[in-house]
Amino acid sequence: MLAKNTDQIKELALKLFEINAFKFGDFKMKVGINSPVYFDLRVIVSYPDVMQTVSDLLVAHIKELQLNAKHVCGVPYTALPLATIVSVQQSTPMLVRRKEAKAYGTKKLIEGIYQAGDTCLIVEDVVTSGSSVLDTVRDLQSEGIVVTDAIVVVDREQGGAGNIAKHGVRMHSLFTLSFLLNTLHEAGRVEKATVDAVAKYIAAVQINSDGSFIGGGDKRNPSEANEFSRTKLSYESRANLAKSSIAKRLFNLMATKQTNLCLAADLTKSDEILAIADKCGPYICLLKTHVDIVEDFSESFVSNLQALATRHNFLIMEDRKFVDIGNTVSLQYSKGVYKISNWADLVTAHTLPGRSIVQGLKAALDGDDAVKERGVFLLAEMSSSGNLIDDKYKENSNKIATEGSNVDFVAGIVCQSANCFSFPGLLQLTPGIKIDESVDKLGQQYQSPENAVKERGADIGVVGRGILQATNVEQAAINYRDRLWAAYTDRIAK
Ligand SMILES: O=c1ccn([C@@H]2O[C@H](COP(=O)(O)O)[C@@H](O)[C@H]2O)c(=O)[nH]1
């Protein structure tokens, strides 16, 4: 890294974290190992300002290092747009490497005009073992092109630079993983413990270009290599990793109040809801409503509920399960009889309409400060038997939740299984909890608090009729609070 651009590079590092191009979690890497950190620079194409900064820095770096090759070539695919901008900015002709040779026509692997003996600079986004850079080097060399240097945005410091050097190619990076972590720490975005844990992982997991481990052994065991598995981290440390302000607030509230119980207040009279909120308020982190079942809804009902939320320190979630085009959802959230955005800290939404559902909800709020006060939980799974959700739907819901433009507003995911998502800054809300595991007559399936938290990854357990139908609702809330909380403390202690 060159000292001249340090401030700009630091700013870029913070921006990459902000747009979720860099994240903490438990990620499966190309080489088959789990990693606590992941770079997804594919997202930067959606941020022209970030593209501009990255390519400006690459060009400045190339000039300073005097890497005067005749061509530039991006490693497919993420680095292709970066290589294109570098090529245009420097007026250096580009070469394009195909991943597979064409089955027809020229059958070329390298597109562009070149001659044997020409030099070429490689552009890459992220280097782990260096194998992708080396694949590109090999194909260029097979055409007689000379490669002596590669410029990359991020060096994960896991052996890539050394592996590439063994093939006679010098690797230069805009920044390293350690630099990025220290920058995030200096800016107060991550704790020192996080920096140390990742440093430990990097030191332990050094990779050869064929995917084997430098020094031998098998580091694929996540408990040895990765301390960032979402279900192993405390709510306090996950608060630091959360990108949504309300998720941070909820994690901290749960940790200080020592409760991960959400009460589903599915009652039809406002007085009944207020009475149960008052009785159970001291034991819950969240109170969930279905406001459209309340027969005597009024503005005073919501203001009284908000007063109870302040008195007992819980948040309010309207389980509206929005599912429509962005414009309609925006109106449903903020207008009509209920004006949900005025009083519900959190809402729920299906991902069926696609990413526009999140944008629609955000559009109803008045600016960035209002967005910070609110959040959404996206439904990726349901507890009802025979529901139509499949693995692809789950995976795509997770993608929507972690996309850069959504991360400030998506606080969590409603789901039933621990493998639904890995980003530790999101909360898993799991409904369908009852001490006597059973089913109801209309398709609801229940599991015990212990199973929900320890086996299925629930961070917050939702209990409705298990409390509402108890003879002593306050005592029932205490029982569920105690069992859910004990299951969580057991989970992180193991
Ligand atoms: O998959 C889902 C999503 C939401 N819910 C809601 O949770 C409560 C559960 O109430 P119980 O009385 O404990 O069954 C209810 O408000 C549902 O709308 C869910 O059950 N499953």
UniProtKB/TrEMBL annotation:
User: Which pathway does UniProt place it in?
Assistant: Pyrimidine metabolism; UMP biosynthesis via de novo pathway; UMP from orotate: step 1/2; Pyrimidine metabolism; UMP biosynthesis via de novo pathway; UMP from orotate: step 2/2
So where does substrate get bound?
A: 266, 288, 383, 444, 464-465
Which residues participate directly in catalysis?
319, 321, 324
Q: Does the keyword Transferase apply?
A: yes
Cite the entry's keywords alphabetically.
Decarboxylase, Glycosyltransferase, Lyase, Multifunctional enzyme, Pyrimidine biosynthesis, Transferase
Any one Gene Ontology MF annotation carried by this entry is: orotate phosphoribosyltransferase activity
Alphabetized PROSITE patterns for the sequence: OMPDECASE (PS00156)
Q: Where is the Orotidine 5'-phosphate decarboxylase domain?
A: 260-480
What are the EC numbers?
2.4.2.10, 4.1.1.23
Q: Do you know which InterPro entries this protein is assigned to?
A: Aldolase_TIM, OMPdecase, OMPdecase_AS, OMPdeCOase_dom, OPRT, Or_phspho_trans_dom, PRTase-like, PRTase_dom
Q: Which residues form a coiled coil?
A: none
Q: Name one GO biological process term.
A: 'de novo' UMP biosynthetic process
Family assignment?
A: In the N-terminal section; belongs to the purine/pyrimidine phosphoribosyltransferase family.
Q: Which NCBIfam families match?
A: pyrE, pyrF
Protein name per its UniProtKB record: Uridine 5'-monophosphate synthase
- Upper lineage: Eukaryota, Metazoa, Ecdysozoa, Arthropoda, Hexapoda
